[in-house]
Amino acid sequence: EDKRHGRIDRSLIDMFALHELLQLCAKRRSLLAGRSCHGLAIHFGLVTDTVTCNVLINLYTKCGRNDCARHVFDAMLSRSIVSWNTMIAGYTQSGEDVQALKLFQRMHREGRQLTKFTLSSTICACAAKYAINECKQLHATAFKLALDSNSFVGTAILDVYAKCNMIMDACWVFEKMPDKTLVTWSSLFAGYVQNGLHEEALCLFRNAQREGVKLTEFTLSAIISACASLALKIEGTQLHAVIVKCGFHGNFFVAASLVDMYARCGQIEKSYALFAYMEQKNVVIWNAMIAGFSRHAHSWEAMILFEKMHQLGIFPNEVTYLSMLSVCSHAGLVEEGRHYFNLLMSDRTVEPNVLHYSCMVDVLGRSGKTDEAWELIHEMPFEPTASMWGSLLGSCRNHNNSGLARIAAEQLFQLEPDNGGNHVLLSNVYAASGNWENVLMARKYLKDSGAKKEMGRSWIEAKGKIHVFVVGERKHPAITDIYNKLEEIYHDVRKFAHMTKIECDLHDVHDDQKEELLKHHSEKLALAFGLISLPLNIPIIIHKNLRICGDCHSFMKVVAHTTKRLFIVRDANRFHHFKDGSCSCGDFW
């Protein structure tokens, strides 16, 4: 009768109005107002209505109260697919990934219909937990339900594979997707960068540009990170121009990537200029600048920035403390390192992790306090990592603690059986102390184990091309000119009483042979090439995949003095700025 006369039931008006209020509360994250609306729903007897309960679950998950959402969910007499999807998504978004997976399993057991939203939310939970087996099962389920080609589901699967170091599987999923969204492209970009495949990330970026894919701040941030890792200064500068053109230069994460990129490319002044230009800065940008100063041995500048953060009310996070401990490690500042480590331990807003302890072990070990570093490893509430034992082994090599070096090496052989560098490092410890019998044993064990040692390489950019050198290089087209230039340099530096540090060569051969071997190290060949190829008014920037040796370091300082040139060497640890006969690291690296 009411419908015939155009009248609508008053209870329906109340329900629709309540739904609108609840949705507004969810949008504004207004938990208190939302609870009041929940009370009204109980008063009007609407809590038995499935749609009302779904809106309540959405409200509570948006406000971070999954416990309240689950209470509503469990009390429901009848649940729709939206009920399950909303609850699973709420768990995933708040990081309660185990609960999300358990709820999905229950849903599957009850024979509920699975949708693209169910699968994508659950797969995202797998990504957070690195649950690769569960993801593979969900991938098979998606394939069975013909949902694997859906952009939401496909992107979620791609993201899990990339985060679990299964980048080839991620690429396969990407290629099979008929419709790729911006999030899909961004996920693969991030996956390549996270897996250290920086050149592949740049190739994908070029493909995206050819296909007219719209650039996002996430895409640009990932590509800038790839340029930073490869030290591609020209490409990074070009991308900076693109970022300004697209209007993303004010984005915090893009700006942080740019600050990091310029620092990693050896342009710390440009990095700081960009940092100083920004009016608004979040902790990510401050961290990027502190880390940049750390890489370039500007320890006091990093400490000043840390103090400025406190003055401006910007609270440090775990990355900030990690950068400050790294600053102290590479500058030999033991007491300052203890200070920042104690600050971390007393900071209730930051949870110390194994990386912080690893950095503190490095602080102590590099300064010769290897026994204290060993004690810290035993006292810490974490299992020691390979990088921690590697740091201790390197410190033992530098400070001639062969007994502790043996212990660290044995741990490394178990954790990294395929890493030949650990065998070589132990061999070097014995060689430095003249224990040639143990050297032979260590090198024999390396040969028998089949472990591989990374070959030292240095490279330099000249006239738009990357030139790569190895020790004793013979294949470079200008190799004759390079060796002639190197001989000329050695003739000049001998006038300054430069003596080759033959103790840096750890072969059991005559001193003359050691000097000849050291003369043709890859970074010296790159330097000679730079001197004959680059104009006088620009710095010579050399990159090396391993730590620069002591003889090459001493050599660079003298040549910087004799040629009046600036040399910047980026090795595996940090940047070295050689100028007027000295290095920015203060001979501590």
TrEMBL record:
GO terms for biological process: RNA modification. This is DYW domain-containing protein. It comes from Triticum aestivum (Wheat). PPR repeats lie at residues 49-79, 80-114, 181-215, 282-316, 317-352, 353-383. GO terms for molecular function: RNA binding; zinc ion binding. It comes from the Eukaryota. PANTHER family: PENTATRICOPEPTIDE REPEAT-CONTAINING PROTEIN. The keyword NAD does not apply. The keyword Transit peptide applies. Residues 500-589 form the DYW domain. InterPro entries: DYW_dom, E_motif, PPR_At4g14850-like_plant, PPR_rpt, TPR-like_helical_dom_sf. It holds the Pfam family PPR. Keywords: Repeat, Transit peptide.
